[in-house]
Amino acid sequence: MEKKNTPVPQTATLTYNGRSIELPVVVGTEGEVGFDVSNLYAKTGHLVYDPGMANTAVCKSDISYIDGENGILRYRGIPIEKLSATHDFIETAMLLMNGKLPTVEERLNFGMLLTENANIHESMKHHFDSFPPKAHPMAILSAMVNSLFCYDRQFQRMIDKDPTLAIDTAAANLMSKVRTLAAYSHRAAQGLPYMFPDPSLRYCSNFLHMMFSEPYRQYIPENEIDEALNLILTLHADHEQNCSTTTVRIVGSAQANLYASVSAGICALWGPLHGGANVAVIDMLESIHRGGLSPQECIEKAKDKNEPFRLMGFGHRVYKKYDPRARLLKTCCDRVFKRLKVQDPLLDIARKLEELALKDSYFIERKLYPNVDFYSGIILRAIGIPTNMFTVIFAIGRMPGWIAQWKELYNDQNSRLTRPRQIYIGAPLTQYQPLTKRK
Ligand code: SDX
Q1: Residue 23 belongs to what domain range?
Q2: According to the model, what pLDDT value does residue 2 have?
Q3: Which of 28, 121, 245, 262 has the most crowded Cβ, counting Cβ within 10 A?
Q4: Nearest residue CA, atom 12 of ligand 1?
Q5: How far, in Å, CA of 105 to CA of 108, rounded?
Q6: pTM recorded for the entire structure
Q7: Is residue 1 over pLDDT 60?
């Protein structure tokens, strides 16, 4: 990447088959350069080919910034290490969605909106009965978030009249209800009564109350537990154009509503290569703990090309250094375990795996480091969150990022329907004899 503020040529020359064209250049705040190929097909009849879009900037954005080479993550320019030490998840969400940190009054007003929107419509509770008891909570969450649109009819009316108000109201609705839906999916699976949200509790404590309270004994987590979950949600809040956020943008580019777009993002996040990795990490650590594999054997298996096995929670498309979020979560593990006075053999196994991998040439050459999913599950386990809910927690954290990115797309006058092309490698023009002559 060019160094920030170094002058760069404003065009790039592409030469092919005896012809040259000039491509405009887009330069980002930190010096990242993009060759603008938005008119390439019109000018040349040719396409760029980039499976997985690893080399493609699909948009300009001012929400998050990642410097993968240096392990940097900033939300609206603020380093995640500083922000997570001084502001909570709701203030972080408001920074991402509104472009600035809230004033005290704005924070209070949004807190009231979250309280007002915490309860789901009574008829929605019956939807949970239609899922089988072992239904995956991510399938339930995606379906229920999509259904929320049916109950937010004002969204459609308002978006025509006052888009900003409509989107901000829907944002509060989504951020508040996603907790309730997640908690209720857990209660329904356990055959437990639903717990109404408690307006006196902070965002994370209210979620844990809805998850774990009993009819005659309210569960109110200790401060350190509330703060640990708050940190996890803050660190998951946005991450530029990751798979699920790009999904939200693609669906939003078709002018589908915010709820439908976020529901699609939840489905993308579910995949084990993406948000589902936090579950896969625990499965991997548990299999080692059960005596399946030693940590070293796990490392060897992850390196073996004949094995589909990967060291889950390791590696990243963008970070080629330690994921800054993983570093913060690793420290958080110690705080939570110290407060709860618990030990978890999985944490010791995770540390051993990290130690072995970080000095192994296979991982060093490929710049594979722990990512956000490597330690998050261990903390969630200590808090008592069931493993199959880990990616649901990721979705609760990512909600403000999806909303912020959808808003940015919605307000971008230059946004277009996302419709990529392909390189066709199938059959040439083919003649054929129909099996039977039409009557
Ligand atoms: C998240 O994009 C985001 O920002 C996502 C996220 C967010 O906040 O939204 O950060 C959240 O999804 C984190 C990633 C969680 N996934 C995992 O932990 C699953 C395990 N990791 C990998 O599958 C992999 O690292 C990916 C999917 C994360 C990234 O894969 P890439 O960029 O497509 O890289 P690749 O598969 O081409 O790997 C390059 C090389 C290959 O070896 P060679 O072919 O060069 O010999 O590295 C190897 C891979 O085999 N490799 C691994 C590995 N990850 C990559 N080998 C063993 N174990 C791994 N974990």
Answers
A1: 11-57
A2: 60
A3: 262
A4: 274
A5: 5
A6: 0.95
A7: no
